[in-house]
Amino acid sequence: AVSSLHDRSVRPTVTTGAIQGSHKAYLDGPDGIRVPVRRVELTNGEHFDVYDTSGPYTDPSAHIDVRAGLPALRAPWIAAREPIDGAVTQVAYAKAGIVTPEMRFIAIREGVDVELVRHEVAIGRAVIPANRKHPESEPMIIGKKFLVKINANIGNSAVTSSIEEEVDKMVWATRWGADNVMDLSTGKDIHETREWIIRNSPVPVGTVPIYQALEKVNGDPAELSWEIYRDTVIEQCEQGVDYMTVHAGVLLRYVPLTAKRVTGIVSRGGSIMAAWCLAHHRESFLYTHFHELCDILRTYDVTFSLGDGLRPGSIADANDDAQLSELRTLGELTEIARARDVQVMIEGPGHIPMHKIAENVRLEEEWCGEAPFYTLGPLATDIAPGYDHITSAIGAATIAKHGTAMLCYVTPKEHLGLPNRDDVKTGVITYKIAAHAADLAKEHPRAQARDDALSQARFEFRWADQFRLSLDPDTAQSFHDETLPAEPAKTAHFCSMCGPKFCSMRITQDVRDYAEAHGLTSVEAIEAGMDEKAREFTDEGGRVYLPVV
Ligand code: MP5
Q: Rounded to two decimals, what is the model's pTM?
Protein backbone atom coordinates (compact mmCIF):
# COMPACT_ATOMS: atom_id res chain seq x y z
CA ALA A 1 0.00 0.00 0.00
CA VAL A 2 1.21 3.49 -0.82
CA SER A 3 1.86 5.37 2.36
CA SER A 4 -0.41 8.36 2.33
CA LEU A 5 1.67 9.95 5.08
CA HIS A 6 3.59 11.47 2.19
CA ASP A 7 0.59 13.58 1.29
CA ARG A 8 2.03 17.02 1.96
CA SER A 9 -1.33 18.74 2.06
CA VAL A 10 -2.22 16.95 5.31
CA ARG A 11 -0.77 18.73 8.35
CA PRO A 12 -1.95 17.28 11.64
CA THR A 13 -0.90 18.97 14.84
CA VAL A 14 -1.11 16.92 17.99
CA THR A 15 -0.84 17.65 21.71
CA THR A 16 2.53 16.74 23.21
CA GLY A 17 4.19 17.13 26.60
CA ALA A 18 3.49 15.64 30.00
CA ILE A 19 0.23 15.97 31.92
CA GLN A 20 0.83 18.47 34.73
CA GLY A 21 2.65 17.18 37.81
CA SER A 22 3.88 14.02 36.12
CA HIS A 23 6.53 12.73 33.77
CA LYS A 24 7.07 9.68 31.61
CA ALA A 25 9.11 6.89 33.18
CA TYR A 26 9.85 3.37 32.01
CA LEU A 27 9.88 0.09 33.91
CA ASP A 28 12.59 -2.21 32.64
CA GLY A 29 11.72 -5.80 31.87
CA PRO A 30 13.56 -8.76 30.33
CA ASP A 31 14.91 -8.66 26.76
CA GLY A 32 15.12 -4.87 26.65
CA ILE A 33 11.39 -4.43 27.28
CA ARG A 34 10.55 -0.92 28.54
CA VAL A 35 7.04 -0.43 29.86
CA PRO A 36 5.88 3.19 30.05
CA VAL A 37 4.24 4.58 33.16
CA ARG A 38 3.11 8.07 34.06
CA ARG A 39 5.03 9.00 37.19
CA VAL A 40 3.06 11.45 39.31
CA GLU A 41 5.40 13.58 41.44
CA LEU A 42 4.05 14.37 44.91
CA THR A 43 4.94 17.40 47.01
CA ASN A 44 5.84 15.17 49.96
CA GLY A 45 8.73 13.75 47.95
CA GLU A 46 6.95 10.50 47.08
CA HIS A 47 5.78 9.48 43.63
CA PHE A 48 2.96 7.38 42.26
CA ASP A 49 3.04 5.45 38.95
CA VAL A 50 -0.10 5.15 36.87
CA TYR A 51 -0.91 3.05 33.80
CA ASP A 52 0.05 5.05 30.75
CA THR A 53 -1.69 4.79 27.37
CA SER A 54 -0.35 8.02 25.89
CA GLY A 55 2.64 6.69 23.95
CA PRO A 56 5.71 8.79 23.09
CA TYR A 57 3.62 11.99 22.84
CA THR A 58 3.99 12.64 26.57
CA ASP A 59 7.72 11.93 26.54
CA PRO A 60 9.63 15.21 25.97
CA SER A 61 12.73 13.25 24.95
CA ALA A 62 10.87 11.53 22.09
CA HIS A 63 11.07 13.09 18.65
CA ILE A 64 7.51 13.37 17.33
CA ASP A 65 7.02 13.56 13.59
CA VAL A 66 3.49 12.65 12.53
CA ARG A 67 4.65 12.35 8.92
CA ALA A 68 7.13 9.61 9.85
CA GLY A 69 4.82 7.85 12.32
CA LEU A 70 5.83 6.29 15.63
CA PRO A 71 8.85 3.98 16.02
CA ALA A 72 8.12 0.31 15.27
CA LEU A 73 8.51 -0.90 18.86
CA ARG A 74 7.39 -4.49 18.17
CA ALA A 75 9.13 -5.00 14.83
CA PRO A 76 12.05 -7.10 16.16
CA TRP A 77 9.70 -9.30 18.21
CA ILE A 78 7.49 -9.96 15.20
CA ALA A 79 10.45 -10.67 12.94
CA ALA A 80 11.94 -13.16 15.39
CA ARG A 81 8.82 -15.34 15.68
CA GLU A 82 8.29 -18.70 14.00
CA PRO A 83 4.71 -19.71 13.16
CA ILE A 84 3.02 -22.46 15.20
CA ASP A 85 1.27 -24.84 12.75
CA GLY A 86 0.99 -21.93 10.35
CA ALA A 87 -0.44 -19.54 12.94
CA VAL A 88 1.26 -16.41 14.22
CA THR A 89 -1.44 -15.36 16.68
CA GLN A 90 -0.93 -14.64 20.36
CA VAL A 91 -3.45 -17.37 21.16
CA ALA A 92 -1.54 -19.95 19.11
CA TYR A 93 1.66 -19.15 21.02
CA ALA A 94 -0.15 -19.10 24.34
CA LYS A 95 -1.71 -22.51 23.69
CA ALA A 96 1.73 -23.89 22.77
CA GLY A 97 3.02 -22.66 26.13
CA ILE A 98 5.11 -19.93 24.53
CA VAL A 99 5.38 -16.58 26.28
CA THR A 100 5.69 -13.75 23.73
CA PRO A 101 7.41 -10.40 24.40
CA GLU A 102 3.94 -8.83 24.19
CA MET A 103 2.85 -11.05 27.11
CA ARG A 104 5.92 -10.04 29.13
CA PHE A 105 5.26 -6.38 28.44
CA ILE A 106 1.63 -6.78 29.53
CA ALA A 107 2.57 -8.64 32.73
CA ILE A 108 4.70 -5.66 33.80
CA ARG A 109 2.08 -3.17 32.69
CA GLU A 110 -0.66 -4.91 34.68
CA GLY A 111 1.55 -5.91 37.61
CA VAL A 112 0.65 -9.60 37.29
CA ASP A 113 2.44 -12.86 36.73
CA VAL A 114 3.21 -13.52 33.06
CA GLU A 115 1.75 -17.01 33.44
CA LEU A 116 -1.67 -15.48 34.16
CA VAL A 117 -1.40 -13.51 30.92
CA ARG A 118 -0.43 -16.59 28.89
CA HIS A 119 -3.12 -18.74 30.47
CA GLU A 120 -5.97 -16.27 29.96
CA VAL A 121 -5.01 -15.77 26.30
CA ALA A 122 -4.67 -19.54 25.77
CA ILE A 123 -8.20 -20.24 27.02
CA GLY A 124 -9.62 -17.26 25.11
CA ARG A 125 -10.76 -15.36 28.21
CA ALA A 126 -8.42 -12.53 27.24
CA VAL A 127 -7.16 -11.13 23.93
CA ILE A 128 -4.10 -9.15 22.91
CA PRO A 129 -5.12 -7.14 19.82
CA ALA A 130 -1.82 -6.74 17.98
CA ASN A 131 -1.74 -6.96 14.20
CA ARG A 132 1.74 -7.85 12.92
CA LYS A 133 1.39 -4.87 10.60
CA HIS A 134 0.91 -2.43 13.47
CA PRO A 135 4.33 -2.74 15.14
CA GLU A 136 4.03 0.80 16.55
CA SER A 137 1.51 -0.30 19.20
CA GLU A 138 2.32 -0.84 22.88
CA PRO A 139 0.93 -4.26 23.93
CA MET A 140 -2.23 -4.32 26.04
CA ILE A 141 -4.66 -7.01 27.14
CA ILE A 142 -8.44 -7.21 27.30
CA GLY A 143 -9.89 -9.73 29.73
CA LYS A 144 -11.91 -9.85 32.95
CA LYS A 145 -8.91 -10.81 35.11
CA PHE A 146 -7.12 -7.61 34.13
CA LEU A 147 -7.78 -3.90 34.51
CA VAL A 148 -10.99 -2.86 32.76
CA LYS A 149 -10.13 -1.15 29.49
CA ILE A 150 -11.84 1.62 27.56
CA ASN A 151 -12.16 2.43 23.88
CA ALA A 152 -12.68 5.81 22.24
CA ASN A 153 -14.53 5.91 18.94
CA ILE A 154 -13.21 8.48 16.50
CA GLY A 155 -13.56 8.96 12.75
CA ASN A 156 -15.30 11.32 10.37
CA SER A 157 -18.77 11.30 8.85
CA ALA A 158 -19.96 12.53 5.47
CA VAL A 159 -21.03 15.74 7.20
CA THR A 160 -17.96 16.78 9.17
CA SER A 161 -14.28 16.45 10.20
CA SER A 162 -10.88 16.02 8.54
CA ILE A 163 -7.77 13.83 8.73
CA GLU A 164 -6.09 16.48 10.91
CA GLU A 165 -8.92 16.53 13.42
CA GLU A 166 -9.13 12.74 13.64
CA VAL A 167 -5.39 12.25 14.21
CA ASP A 168 -5.53 14.92 16.89
CA LYS A 169 -8.52 13.15 18.52
CA MET A 170 -6.59 9.84 18.59
CA VAL A 171 -3.60 11.43 20.36
CA TRP A 172 -5.91 13.41 22.64
CA ALA A 173 -7.98 10.33 23.56
CA THR A 174 -4.91 8.25 24.45
CA ARG A 175 -3.45 11.17 26.42
CA TRP A 176 -6.44 10.95 28.77
CA GLY A 177 -6.43 7.18 29.00
CA ALA A 178 -8.07 5.52 26.00
CA ASP A 179 -6.67 1.96 25.81
CA ASN A 180 -7.87 1.56 22.20
CA VAL A 181 -9.37 3.71 19.52
CA MET A 182 -11.79 2.70 16.80
CA ASP A 183 -11.69 4.58 13.53
CA LEU A 184 -15.36 4.54 12.51
CA SER A 185 -14.93 6.91 9.56
CA THR A 186 -17.78 6.78 7.07
CA GLY A 187 -17.09 10.00 5.19
CA LYS A 188 -14.36 10.83 2.70
CA ASP A 189 -10.74 9.63 2.64
CA ILE A 190 -11.44 6.54 4.75
CA HIS A 191 -8.23 4.75 3.75
CA GLU A 192 -6.00 7.82 4.18
CA THR A 193 -7.53 8.81 7.51
CA ARG A 194 -6.91 5.31 8.85
CA GLU A 195 -3.32 5.30 7.56
CA TRP A 196 -2.56 8.49 9.47
CA ILE A 197 -4.21 7.17 12.61
CA ILE A 198 -2.55 3.74 12.62
CA ARG A 199 0.97 4.94 11.85
CA ASN A 200 0.73 7.37 14.74
CA SER A 201 -1.24 5.26 17.22
CA PRO A 202 0.44 3.83 20.34
CA VAL A 203 -2.74 1.84 21.10
CA PRO A 204 -4.54 -0.86 19.12
CA VAL A 205 -6.89 0.42 16.44
CA GLY A 206 -10.23 -1.17 15.62
CA THR A 207 -12.48 -0.67 12.60
CA VAL A 208 -15.77 -1.82 11.08
CA PRO A 209 -14.71 -2.87 7.55
CA ILE A 210 -18.29 -3.00 6.25
CA TYR A 211 -18.36 0.83 6.36
CA GLN A 212 -15.56 1.14 3.83
CA ALA A 213 -17.01 -1.72 1.76
CA LEU A 214 -20.28 0.21 1.60
CA GLU A 215 -18.44 3.32 0.46
CA LYS A 216 -16.92 1.28 -2.38
CA VAL A 217 -20.44 0.48 -3.67
CA ASN A 218 -21.61 4.08 -3.28
CA GLY A 219 -23.71 3.42 -0.22
CA ASP A 220 -26.11 0.81 -1.62
CA PRO A 221 -26.13 -2.24 0.71
CA ALA A 222 -27.68 -4.48 -1.96
CA GLU A 223 -24.54 -3.95 -4.09
CA LEU A 224 -22.24 -5.42 -1.43
CA SER A 225 -20.67 -8.82 -2.01
CA TRP A 226 -18.37 -11.20 -0.19
CA GLU A 227 -15.57 -10.35 -2.66
CA ILE A 228 -15.78 -6.60 -2.05
CA TYR A 229 -15.93 -7.16 1.67
CA ARG A 230 -13.04 -9.65 1.67
CA ASP A 231 -10.79 -7.30 -0.31
CA THR A 232 -11.60 -4.48 2.10
CA VAL A 233 -10.72 -6.67 5.07
CA ILE A 234 -7.39 -7.63 3.49
CA GLU A 235 -6.66 -3.96 2.70
CA GLN A 236 -7.28 -3.05 6.35
CA CYS A 237 -5.31 -6.05 7.69
CA GLU A 238 -2.37 -4.95 5.54
CA GLN A 239 -2.63 -1.43 6.95
CA GLY A 240 -2.38 -2.68 10.51
CA VAL A 241 -5.90 -2.64 11.95
CA ASP A 242 -5.72 -4.62 15.22
CA TYR A 243 -9.34 -5.70 15.61
CA MET A 244 -12.38 -5.66 13.39
CA THR A 245 -16.04 -5.48 14.20
CA VAL A 246 -17.79 -8.13 12.12
CA HIS A 247 -21.59 -8.29 12.34
CA ALA A 248 -21.69 -11.95 11.34
CA GLY A 249 -24.48 -12.83 13.77
CA VAL A 250 -27.17 -10.83 11.96
CA LEU A 251 -28.90 -13.77 10.30
CA LEU A 252 -31.73 -13.49 7.80
CA ARG A 253 -34.17 -15.19 10.16
CA TYR A 254 -33.44 -12.75 12.98
CA VAL A 255 -34.39 -9.65 11.02
CA PRO A 256 -38.16 -10.11 11.54
CA LEU A 257 -37.54 -10.30 15.30
CA THR A 258 -36.74 -6.58 15.20
CA ALA A 259 -40.01 -5.60 13.51
CA LYS A 260 -41.92 -4.81 16.70
CA ARG A 261 -39.06 -3.15 18.50
CA VAL A 262 -39.35 0.43 19.66
CA THR A 263 -36.06 1.35 17.96
CA GLY A 264 -35.55 -1.43 15.40
CA ILE A 265 -31.94 -2.01 14.35
CA VAL A 266 -29.66 0.73 15.72
CA SER A 267 -26.31 -0.71 14.68
CA ARG A 268 -25.04 0.78 11.44
CA GLY A 269 -23.29 -2.46 10.47
CA GLY A 270 -26.31 -4.46 11.60
CA SER A 271 -28.71 -2.45 9.49
CA ILE A 272 -26.44 -2.70 6.42
CA MET A 273 -26.29 -6.50 6.74
CA ALA A 274 -30.02 -6.78 7.39
CA ALA A 275 -30.65 -4.73 4.23
CA TRP A 276 -28.34 -7.02 2.22
CA CYS A 277 -30.00 -10.20 3.56
CA LEU A 278 -33.46 -8.91 2.73
CA ALA A 279 -32.50 -7.57 -0.71
CA HIS A 280 -31.06 -10.94 -1.75
CA HIS A 281 -33.15 -13.13 0.52
CA ARG A 282 -29.97 -14.99 1.36
CA GLU A 283 -27.98 -15.73 4.45
CA SER A 284 -25.38 -13.08 5.37
CA PHE A 285 -22.10 -13.49 3.49
CA LEU A 286 -20.28 -12.70 6.72
CA TYR A 287 -21.81 -15.85 8.20
CA THR A 288 -21.46 -18.11 5.18
CA HIS A 289 -17.84 -17.07 4.58
CA PHE A 290 -16.84 -16.93 8.22
CA HIS A 291 -14.20 -19.67 7.87
CA GLU A 292 -12.42 -17.73 5.15
CA LEU A 293 -12.55 -14.62 7.25
CA CYS A 294 -10.89 -16.55 10.09
CA ASP A 295 -8.06 -17.57 7.77
CA ILE A 296 -7.45 -13.95 6.75
CA LEU A 297 -7.47 -12.57 10.30
CA ARG A 298 -5.25 -15.39 11.51
CA THR A 299 -2.54 -14.51 8.98
CA TYR A 300 -2.14 -11.06 10.53
CA ASP A 301 -3.24 -11.81 14.10
CA VAL A 302 -6.20 -9.49 13.81
CA THR A 303 -8.73 -10.02 16.59
CA PHE A 304 -12.43 -10.49 15.89
CA SER A 305 -14.80 -8.18 17.66
CA LEU A 306 -18.02 -9.99 16.85
CA GLY A 307 -20.46 -7.13 16.44
CA ASP A 308 -23.89 -6.93 17.99
CA GLY A 309 -25.79 -5.79 14.96
CA LEU A 310 -29.06 -6.44 16.79
CA ARG A 311 -28.18 -4.71 20.07
CA PRO A 312 -31.09 -2.96 21.76
CA GLY A 313 -31.20 0.76 21.10
CA SER A 314 -33.70 1.49 23.84
CA ILE A 315 -34.64 0.33 27.32
CA ALA A 316 -37.80 -1.21 25.85
CA ASP A 317 -35.80 -3.54 23.60
CA ALA A 318 -33.24 -4.73 26.16
CA ASN A 319 -32.49 -8.48 26.32
CA ASP A 320 -35.16 -9.23 23.70
CA ASP A 321 -35.30 -12.20 21.31
CA ALA A 322 -33.43 -10.45 18.52
CA GLN A 323 -30.52 -9.53 20.79
CA LEU A 324 -30.29 -12.91 22.48
CA SER A 325 -30.69 -14.93 19.26
CA GLU A 326 -27.78 -13.05 17.78
CA LEU A 327 -25.73 -13.60 20.95
CA ARG A 328 -26.17 -17.37 20.61
CA THR A 329 -24.91 -17.18 17.04
CA LEU A 330 -21.91 -15.14 18.17
CA GLY A 331 -21.15 -18.01 20.54
CA GLU A 332 -21.20 -20.48 17.67
CA LEU A 333 -18.85 -18.22 15.65
CA THR A 334 -16.53 -17.86 18.66
CA GLU A 335 -15.99 -21.61 18.64
CA ILE A 336 -15.18 -21.62 14.94
CA ALA A 337 -12.66 -18.79 15.29
CA ARG A 338 -11.03 -20.29 18.37
CA ALA A 339 -10.60 -23.65 16.66
CA ARG A 340 -8.53 -21.73 14.09
CA ASP A 341 -6.48 -19.92 16.73
CA VAL A 342 -8.04 -16.54 16.01
CA GLN A 343 -8.64 -14.23 18.98
CA VAL A 344 -12.23 -13.19 19.66
CA MET A 345 -14.14 -10.69 21.72
CA ILE A 346 -17.89 -10.14 21.78
CA GLU A 347 -19.61 -6.79 21.47
CA GLY A 348 -22.54 -5.94 23.68
CA PRO A 349 -25.20 -3.27 24.11
CA GLY A 350 -26.38 -0.56 23.92
CA HIS A 351 -29.31 0.28 26.20
CA ILE A 352 -30.09 -1.95 29.22
CA PRO A 353 -31.70 -1.05 32.55
CA MET A 354 -29.49 -1.90 35.51
CA HIS A 355 -31.55 -4.86 36.70
CA LYS A 356 -31.09 -6.65 33.37
CA ILE A 357 -27.33 -6.18 33.13
CA ALA A 358 -26.17 -9.18 35.19
CA GLU A 359 -28.31 -11.50 33.07
CA ASN A 360 -26.80 -10.15 29.87
CA VAL A 361 -23.26 -10.81 31.12
CA ARG A 362 -24.19 -14.27 32.37
CA LEU A 363 -25.59 -15.29 28.98
CA GLU A 364 -22.60 -13.86 27.13
CA GLU A 365 -20.20 -15.83 29.29
CA GLU A 366 -22.23 -19.01 29.04
CA TRP A 367 -22.89 -18.92 25.30
CA CYS A 368 -19.62 -17.39 24.11
CA GLY A 369 -17.21 -19.41 26.25
CA GLU A 370 -16.19 -16.40 28.35
CA ALA A 371 -14.76 -14.52 25.37
CA PRO A 372 -14.03 -10.95 26.55
CA PHE A 373 -17.19 -8.86 26.54
CA TYR A 374 -16.86 -5.40 24.99
CA THR A 375 -19.89 -3.21 25.55
CA LEU A 376 -21.12 0.12 24.28
CA GLY A 377 -22.09 1.64 27.62
CA PRO A 378 -24.84 0.41 28.13
CA LEU A 379 -27.13 3.38 28.75
CA ALA A 380 -29.11 2.72 31.92
CA THR A 381 -31.90 5.04 30.77
CA ASP A 382 -32.94 6.75 27.53
CA ILE A 383 -34.11 10.08 28.92
CA ALA A 384 -31.02 12.29 28.96
CA PRO A 385 -29.67 13.14 25.51
CA GLY A 386 -26.85 15.62 26.04
CA TYR A 387 -25.75 13.64 29.10
CA ASP A 388 -25.44 10.17 27.62
CA HIS A 389 -21.83 9.88 28.76
CA ILE A 390 -23.39 9.76 32.24
CA THR A 391 -26.44 7.55 31.51
CA SER A 392 -24.07 5.11 29.85
CA ALA A 393 -21.30 5.29 32.46
CA ILE A 394 -23.81 4.11 35.06
CA GLY A 395 -24.49 1.04 32.93
CA ALA A 396 -20.81 0.68 32.01
CA ALA A 397 -19.64 0.60 35.64
CA THR A 398 -22.33 -1.93 36.45
CA ILE A 399 -21.62 -4.22 33.51
CA ALA A 400 -17.86 -4.03 34.08
CA LYS A 401 -18.32 -5.01 37.71
CA HIS A 402 -20.10 -8.12 36.41
CA GLY A 403 -17.16 -9.01 34.17
CA THR A 404 -17.16 -6.89 31.01
CA ALA A 405 -13.53 -6.49 29.94
CA MET A 406 -13.67 -3.39 27.77
CA LEU A 407 -16.04 -0.44 27.69
CA CYS A 408 -16.63 1.57 24.56
CA TYR A 409 -17.05 5.17 25.60
CA VAL A 410 -20.08 7.29 24.87
CA THR A 411 -19.67 11.06 24.62
CA PRO A 412 -22.11 13.86 25.51
CA LYS A 413 -22.88 14.13 21.77
CA GLU A 414 -24.27 10.57 21.51
CA HIS A 415 -27.54 10.52 19.53
CA LEU A 416 -26.99 14.20 18.64
CA GLY A 417 -23.87 14.67 16.49
CA LEU A 418 -20.23 13.79 15.80
CA PRO A 419 -18.10 14.34 18.94
CA ASN A 420 -15.42 17.03 18.84
CA ARG A 421 -12.14 17.12 20.75
CA ASP A 422 -13.75 18.33 23.99
CA ASP A 423 -16.42 15.61 23.81
CA VAL A 424 -13.68 13.02 23.29
CA LYS A 425 -11.95 14.08 26.51
CA THR A 426 -15.21 14.14 28.47
CA GLY A 427 -16.08 10.67 27.16
CA VAL A 428 -12.65 9.24 28.01
CA ILE A 429 -12.55 10.66 31.55
CA THR A 430 -16.11 9.53 32.20
CA TYR A 431 -15.23 6.02 31.10
CA LYS A 432 -12.00 5.96 33.12
CA ILE A 433 -14.24 6.59 36.11
CA ALA A 434 -16.58 3.72 35.19
CA ALA A 435 -13.68 1.34 34.52
CA HIS A 436 -11.86 2.24 37.73
CA ALA A 437 -15.02 1.99 39.81
CA ALA A 438 -15.40 -1.54 38.47
CA ASP A 439 -11.75 -2.39 39.18
CA LEU A 440 -12.36 -1.38 42.79
CA ALA A 441 -15.59 -3.37 43.01
CA LYS A 442 -13.80 -6.41 41.56
CA GLU A 443 -11.12 -5.94 44.24
CA HIS A 444 -8.34 -5.72 41.69
CA PRO A 445 -5.22 -5.89 43.90
CA ARG A 446 -3.69 -2.66 42.65
CA ALA A 447 -6.76 -0.54 42.03
CA GLN A 448 -7.29 1.07 45.42
CA ALA A 449 -3.76 2.41 45.85
CA ARG A 450 -4.55 5.47 43.74
CA ASP A 451 -7.72 6.24 45.70
CA ASP A 452 -5.76 5.95 48.92
CA ALA A 453 -2.98 8.21 47.68
CA LEU A 454 -5.46 10.84 46.52
CA SER A 455 -7.51 10.66 49.73
CA GLN A 456 -4.37 10.99 51.81
CA ALA A 457 -3.40 14.09 49.86
CA ARG A 458 -6.92 15.49 50.24
CA PHE A 459 -6.93 14.91 54.00
CA GLU A 460 -3.52 16.50 54.39
CA PHE A 461 -4.53 19.53 52.32
CA ARG A 462 -1.87 18.80 49.71
CA TRP A 463 -4.02 20.40 47.03
CA ALA A 464 -1.44 20.09 44.26
CA ASP A 465 -1.14 16.35 44.95
CA GLN A 466 -4.90 15.94 44.92
CA PHE A 467 -5.00 17.55 41.46
CA ARG A 468 -2.07 15.54 40.13
CA LEU A 469 -3.46 12.19 41.27
CA SER A 470 -6.82 12.88 39.68
CA LEU A 471 -7.92 11.62 36.26
CA ASP A 472 -8.10 15.19 34.97
CA PRO A 473 -5.68 17.42 36.89
CA ASP A 474 -6.31 20.43 34.64
CA THR A 475 -10.03 20.54 35.40
CA ALA A 476 -9.58 19.81 39.11
CA GLN A 477 -7.13 22.67 39.46
CA SER A 478 -9.13 25.12 37.38
CA PHE A 479 -12.27 24.46 39.47
CA HIS A 480 -10.31 25.06 42.65
CA ASP A 481 -8.69 28.20 41.21
CA GLU A 482 -12.04 29.66 40.20
CA THR A 483 -12.57 30.80 43.78
CA LEU A 484 -9.17 30.55 45.48
CA PRO A 485 -6.52 31.21 42.85
CA ALA A 486 -3.78 32.54 45.18
CA GLU A 487 -0.77 30.32 45.79
CA PRO A 488 -1.22 30.06 49.61
CA ALA A 489 -4.64 28.44 48.96
CA LYS A 490 -2.75 25.40 47.63
CA THR A 491 -1.79 24.48 51.18
CA ALA A 492 -4.72 26.08 53.01
CA HIS A 493 -6.73 23.87 55.34
CA PHE A 494 -10.04 24.66 53.63
CA CYS A 495 -11.57 25.49 50.27
CA SER A 496 -14.44 27.72 49.15
CA MET A 497 -17.00 24.93 49.57
CA CYS A 498 -17.22 25.28 53.37
CA GLY A 499 -14.75 28.00 54.31
CA PRO A 500 -12.22 27.72 57.14
CA LYS A 501 -14.61 27.25 60.10
CA PHE A 502 -16.72 24.45 58.64
CA CYS A 503 -14.06 22.23 57.06
CA SER A 504 -14.74 18.73 58.42
CA MET A 505 -11.26 17.55 57.58
CA ARG A 506 -9.74 20.51 59.43
CA ILE A 507 -11.95 19.84 62.46
CA THR A 508 -10.93 16.18 62.42
CA GLN A 509 -7.33 17.34 62.38
CA ASP A 510 -8.10 19.51 65.43
CA VAL A 511 -9.59 16.52 67.26
CA ARG A 512 -6.50 14.51 66.52
CA ASP A 513 -4.22 17.36 67.59
CA TYR A 514 -6.17 17.71 70.85
CA ALA A 515 -5.90 14.01 71.54
CA GLU A 516 -2.21 14.06 70.87
CA ALA A 517 -1.69 17.10 73.12
CA HIS A 518 -3.44 15.20 75.93
CA GLY A 519 -1.31 12.11 75.44
CA LEU A 520 -4.17 10.11 73.96
CA THR A 521 -4.41 8.40 70.63
CA SER A 522 -7.56 9.69 69.00
CA VAL A 523 -9.11 6.22 69.28
CA GLU A 524 -8.57 6.35 73.06
CA ALA A 525 -9.97 9.86 73.15
CA ILE A 526 -13.11 8.76 71.37
CA GLU A 527 -13.47 5.62 73.49
CA ALA A 528 -13.04 7.65 76.67
CA GLY A 529 -15.79 9.98 75.49
CA MET A 530 -18.06 7.04 74.63
CA ASP A 531 -17.55 5.42 78.06
CA GLU A 532 -18.43 8.72 79.65
CA LYS A 533 -21.67 8.95 77.63
CA ALA A 534 -22.55 5.29 78.35
CA ARG A 535 -22.20 5.86 82.10
CA GLU A 536 -24.47 8.91 81.86
CA PHE A 537 -27.06 6.77 80.06
CA THR A 538 -27.15 4.01 82.71
CA ASP A 539 -27.08 6.53 85.57
CA GLU A 540 -30.22 8.14 84.17
CA GLY A 541 -32.13 4.85 84.20
CA GLY A 542 -31.18 3.44 80.77
CA ARG A 543 -34.20 4.99 79.09
CA VAL A 544 -34.11 5.55 75.35
CA TYR A 545 -36.85 8.21 75.51
CA LEU A 546 -36.58 10.72 78.29
CA PRO A 547 -39.69 12.45 79.61
CA VAL A 548 -40.10 16.07 78.56
CA VAL A 549 -39.44 18.31 81.55
C1 MP5 B 1 -19.29 0.11 16.71
C2 MP5 B 1 -19.44 0.90 17.82
C3 MP5 B 1 -19.91 0.47 15.43
N4 MP5 B 1 -20.17 2.03 17.76
N5 MP5 B 1 -18.83 0.56 18.96
C6 MP5 B 1 -18.13 -0.57 19.00
C7 MP5 B 1 -17.52 -0.97 20.25
N8 MP5 B 1 -17.99 -1.35 17.94
C9 MP5 B 1 -18.57 -1.03 16.81
O10 MP5 B 1 -21.17 0.13 15.57
P11 MP5 B 1 -22.27 -0.38 14.60
O12 MP5 B 1 -22.67 -1.69 15.19
O13 MP5 B 1 -21.81 -0.51 13.19
O14 MP5 B 1 -23.27 0.70 14.76
A: 0.93
- Reported as a pLDDT band with limits 50, 70 and 90, residue 4 is low
DSSP string, 87-117: B--HHHHHHTTPPPHHHHHHHHHHTS-HHHH
Which of 267, 273, 276 maximizes ligand 1 atoms within 8 Å of its Cβ, making it the mutation to test the pocket? 267
Query: ipTM of this predicted complex?
Result: 0.90
Which of 271, 407, 408 is the best mutation target for the ligand 1 pocket, counting ligand atoms within 8 Å of the beta carbon and taking the most? 408
Determine the 3-state secondary structure of 470 from DSSP: coil
Separation of CA 267 and ligand 1 centre (Å): 7
Half-sphere exposure of 72 (CA within 13 A, CB side): 12
Q: Write down the pLDDT at residue 2.
A: 44
* Ligand 1 atom closest to 267 (CA): 14
Residue minimizing CA distance to atom 9 of ligand 1: 245
* Mean pLDDT, the chain, integer: 94
Euclidean distance between CA atoms 138 and 45, whole angstroms: 30
Report the alpha-carbon distance of residue 175 to residue 59 in Å, rounded: 11
CA atoms within 13 A on the CB side of 323: 27
Q: Could you tell me which residues are beta bridge partners of residue 406?
A: 149, 374
Name all residues whose Cβ lies below 6 A of ligand 1. Answer: 151, 153, 182, 184, 208, 245, 267-270, 307, 309, 347, 374, 376, 408
Residue 9: CB partners within 8 Å, gap ≥ 6? none
Count of other CB atoms within 10 angstroms of residue 455: 13
Q: How far apart are CA 340 and CA 84, in angstroms?
A: 12
Question: Helices 190-199 and 226-239: crossing angle, nearest 10°?
Answer: 30
By C-alpha distance, which of 150, 169, 185, 157 is closest to 420? 169
Q: Is 306 helix (H, G, I), strand (E, B) or coil?
A: strand
The protein residue whose alpha carbon is closest to atom 14 in ligand 1 is 267
- For ligand 1, pick from 150, 184, 351, 414 the residue to mutate: most ligand atoms within 8 Å of CB: 184
